[in-house]
């Protein structure tokens, strides 16, 4: 009998069940009334008294082992079933992972940076919180001068004045102070003005301003560079025109218009039937500004320009309302995935 017990013990220990049928076979073979262990208990009746003590112990241990093994097999099968391990349907189509797309402002921004990088402009950045000197005074806006009204400002602190920059010209001031000509750089970034929010204006918008300073830089260089930009950005047939304008930091100053991309100059409601769209302000850097920023204006000259990204993208994509950029409506944002590179 001892041999039988040993044999069944090792059988039970090495038993594996990969499904419910095998579990049931285990139960019938070892635990049922007609099972092998029950048979041994019956045979135990004929065991001589001197062996009873030893064999009884082994037999009870075997019975306990069989029950424990059964419980263990049953619970493993159940967890396997509930977590579905072993039942993964590999033919099921995968769940789609939604890919985001670039914001139209980033698309236009990157494209403009790319165009100017190709002709040697570097990219410079600066703080959004500025002091009065970098945003106004160094740029020839005297204190109390009405020119400051052109850029309605969010002041964070008065005297000394700390404010949210109204243009990225403040970055150009920093570049001029910290380096020496030749300077050829563009400054992309977010700017802030205290304007009522409407379809055409917002208190936050983006600009790319450009600056080129060297010996003998003339208005002809300015025109040629911006003409190159307009054709790269809007297509080879684009025409440009310059209208006189005023900025405190440039003299002479101009606004540049491009032929309307929608009607090709014939006149439509996007260009208000003029055939032209205004896309940027520009001019020759005022010698006062160069001197204030530590550049000798008797040796060097330069030009500057400033492009408003929101308005430019509105023209390019025929967007009617500037507020759409900031509302995070996916129906709007998804339309620009492949609009530009
Ligand atoms: N800084 C001007 C603005 O924000 C734009 C500009 C830049 C105009 C450079 C001329 C030259 O309105």
What can you tell me about this protein's structure?
The protein is α+β, with helices and mostly antiparallel strands. It has helices spanning 2-13, 20-31, 36-44, 49-83, 104-117, 132-135, 169-178, 219-234, 287-292, 309-317, 330-333; strands at residues 122-123, 129-131, 155-157, 162-164, 183-192, 204-214, 240-247, 250-259, 276-285, 301-308. Helices cover 38% and strands 20% of the residues. It contains eleven helices and ten strands. Strands 1-5-6-10-9-8-7 form a seven-stranded mixed β-sheet, sandwiched between helices. Strands 2-4-3 form a three-stranded antiparallel β-sheet. Strand 7 and strand 8 (250-259) form a beta hairpin. The chain is elongated. Helix 1 (2-13) packs parallel to helix 4. It has two domains: 2-83; 104-336, BirA Bifunctional Protein, domain 2.
List the helices and strands and how they pair.
Layout: H1 2-13, H2 20-31, H3 36-44, H4 49-83, H5 104-117, E1 122-123, E2 129-131, H6 132-135, E3 155-157, E4 162-164, H7 169-178, E5 183-192, E6 204-214, H8 219-234, E7 240-247, E8 250-259, E9 276-285, H9 287-292, E10 301-308, H10 309-317, H11 330-333
Parallel strand pairs: 1-5
Antiparallel strand pairs: 2-4, 3-4, 5-6, 6-10, 7-8, 8-9, 9-10
The protein binds phenylalanine.
Residues 167, 169, 209, 247, 250, 281-283, 304-306 line the site of phenylalanine.
């Amino acid at each position: 009998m001892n041999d039988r017990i040993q044999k069944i013990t090792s059988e039970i220990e090495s038993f594996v069940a990969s499904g419910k049928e095998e579990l049931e076979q285990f139960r019938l073979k070892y635990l049922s009334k007609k099972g092998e262990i029950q048979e041994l208990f019956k045979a135990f009746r004929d065991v001589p008294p001197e062996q009873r003590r030893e064999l009884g112990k082994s037999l009870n241990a075997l019975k306990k082992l069989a029950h424990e093994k059964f419980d263990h097999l049953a619970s493993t099968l159940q967890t396997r079933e509930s977590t579905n391990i072993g039942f993964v349907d590999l033919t099921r189509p995968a769940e789609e992972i939604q890919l985001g797309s670039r914001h139209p402002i980033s698309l236009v921004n990157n494209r403009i940076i790319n165009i100017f990088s190709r002709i040697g402009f570097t990219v410079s950045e600066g703080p959004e919180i500025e002091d009065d000197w970098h945003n106004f005074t160094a740029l020839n806006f005297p204190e109390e001068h009405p020119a400051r009204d052109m850029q309605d400002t969010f002041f964070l602190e008065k005297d000394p004045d700390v404010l949210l920059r109204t243009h990225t010209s403040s970055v150009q001031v920093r570049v001029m102070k910290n380096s020496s000509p030749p300077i050829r750089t563009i400054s992309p970034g977010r700017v802030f003005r205290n304007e009522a929010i409407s379809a055409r204006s917002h208190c936050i918008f983006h600009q790319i301003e450009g600056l080129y300073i060297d010996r003998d830089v003339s208005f002809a260089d300015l025109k040629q560079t911006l003409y190159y930009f307009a054709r790269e950005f809007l297509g080879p047939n684009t025409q440009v025109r310059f209208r006189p304008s005023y900025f405190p930091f440039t003299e002479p100053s101009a606004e540049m218009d491009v032929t309307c991309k929608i009607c090709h100059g014939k006149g439509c409601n996007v260009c208000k039937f003029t055939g032209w769209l205004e896309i940027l302000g520009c001019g020759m850097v005022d010698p006062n500004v160069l001197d204030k920023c530590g550049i000798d204006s008797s040796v060097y000259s330069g030009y500057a320009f400033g492009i408003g990204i929101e308005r430019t993208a509105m023209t390019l994509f025929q967007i009617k309302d500037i507020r759409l950029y900031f509302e995070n409506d996916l129906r709007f944002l998804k339309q620009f995935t492949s609009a530009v590179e």
